Amino acid sequence: MDDPLVIAGREYSSRLITGTGGATNLEVLERALVASGTELTTVSIRRVDAAGGTGVLDVLRRNGIDPLPNTAACRTAAEAVLTAHLAREALHTDWVKLEVVADDRTLLPDPVELLDAARTLVDDGFTVLPYTNDDPVLALRLEEVGCAAVMPLGSPIGTGLGIRNPHNIELIVARSRVPVVLDAGIGTASDAALAMELGCDAVLLATAVTRAGDPVRMATAMRHAVRAGRLASGAERVPKRFWAQASSPPR
Amino acid sequence: MRARVNGTDHDFADDVTVRELLDDLGYDRPGVAAAMNGTVVPRVRWASTTVPDGAVLEVLTAVQGG
User: Fold this and answer.
1) What is the domain-level CATH number for residue A106?
2) Among A148, A189, A194, A248, which is least packed, fewest CB within 10 Å?
3) Of A21-25, A151-155, B38-42, where does mean pLDDT reach its minimum?
4) CB contact under 8 A, A86 and B35
């Protein structure tokens, strides 16, 4: 495999991790997932009688996509830990996208509860991928307790505001010894490419594709953007200059 | 006896097991996990775990989201 994404020893050829929320129906979701080329996709854990499709696992299975259960909507470490244990039981995976959010308006991670839950779940044998703030110190703390990756936000979930603090993302990348996945806030393809150019190892997005006017087309765009950004980040870009520099020989 | 499952009270026979309870409600299917009184009951123990009166169960599965 050429230039694989490696998380906790598992290799993926795609550096695009997708979510499944927001799609109008499973048929559109499936076509978008296939177009994106993703090999790892998040699902939520909810009451069996709750509204919302339960056929999503079948979609993932028949396309060879690994499920990544999340703890979306959990507000406390205790809730998130129980949800992760239920997800492990239901899906037979010890991987979890750990989400502990502070409130509904911002959906920002609660750093205290998040770190607490991460520590517990690592001790319980989980492969923990935490959705975190773009805070370089918190990212280090999450790595120290044994998280398999860190997943800083570009901007709040579902906003499509892109990467509001690129330098923080660069700081996280510069010191992290685990993969960095830009998670949340991606609005369009250039945001995904920027994440990769900043040195992120992968991008996780859902809304940007599932709520786009043409989800399949946007999924295709994201696939290429992540690939382009990855190539550019390894290509040693030219320095930025104040004045012009001719690219043609003098007359 | 009575137990609360996913927020709704249901009556069951005394000494009902987790498996019988889930089967009664149509929830005994692949991809489902159950917690009783805040603790996960692994599928392998559904048949041997009795549900006490007043128990609170959550039965969950994977859905679109995130």
Assistant:
1) 3.20.20.70
2) A248
3) A21-25
4) yes
Percent of chain A with pLDDT over 90: 88
In a domain, A247, yes or no: no
A171: Cα within 13 Å, side-chain hemisphere: 12
Catalytic, out of A88, A97, A119, A223:
A97
Per-residue model confidence (pLDDT) at position A52? 45
Domains of chain B (ranges; CATH) run 2-61 (3.10.20.30)
Q: Residue A50: pLDDT above 70?
A: no
Element holding A62 (H helix, E strand): helix A56-62
Q: Residues, chain A, total?
A: 251
Q: How many Å apart are CA A238 and CA A166, to the nearest integer?
A: 18
pLDDT in tens, A69-121: 999 989 999 999 999 999 999 999 999 999 999 999 999 999 999 999 999 99
The minimum CA-CA distance between A90 and chain B, rounded to whole Å, is: 5
Binding-site residue positions of A for 1-deoxy-D-xylulose 5-phosphate: 158, 184-185, 206-207
Sequence-ordered strand ranges (E) for chain A: 5-7, 10-12, 16-18, 40-47, 66-69, 95-98, 127-132, 151-152, 181-183, 202-205
Q: What percent of chain A has pLDDT over 70?
A: 98
Residue A209 touches partner B, C-beta closer than 8 Å:
no
User: Residue A249 falls within a domain, yes or no?
Assistant: no
Across A184-193, b (16+ Cβ under 10 Å) vs e yields bbbbebbbbb
Name the β-bridge partners of A130: A98
Domain span at residue A102 reads: 5-233
Which helix (H) or strand (E) is A121 found in, with range? helix A111-123
Number of Cβ pairs < 8 A linking chain A and chain B: 96
